[in-house]
Amino acid sequence: MEIDEHLRERIRTYHGDLASLEVALGSYLVAREYGWKVIAVCHSAATVTRSKEILGVDIKEIFPARTALSRRVNGIRLADALGKFWEVARGRDPTKKLVNDDDKNQPELAL
To answer: Could you give the maximum distance between any two Cα atoms of the chain, in Å?
Structure first.
């Protein structure tokens, strides 16, 4: 079955919150153009898992990790600058000094 037909079938048979279906479809389309790492940075692991269940497709298996468009995403550039992709993707604070708004003397991170 072609992927477009697969997605149409998933849409037709979906029962649940339409917002979740919309996120899943949007994630699929964005991952196709920007790579799956952008989705990992933009959404929680739970949202990525829910999207995988809704669509019956694992974006990590069908799309590249990155594309030429990936560096347009601030989260990807931040992860690259810090060298800590998974910490950024998981929402962990890789360096508290760089993201602590209370410390006005901290250096700016060039993105």
So the answer is: 57
**CA distances for 110 relative to 45, 79, 103, 105, angstroms:** 27, 12, 17, 15
Using pLDDT thresholds of 50, 70 and 90, give the confidence band for residue 96: low
Helices within 1-111 (DSSP H only): 3-13, 18-34, 36-42, 45-55, 59-62, 74-82, 85-89, 96-99
Give pLDDT tens digits for 41-63: 999 999 999 999 999 999 999 99
Average pLDDT of the chain is 86
Identity (one letter) of the amino acid at 1?
A: M
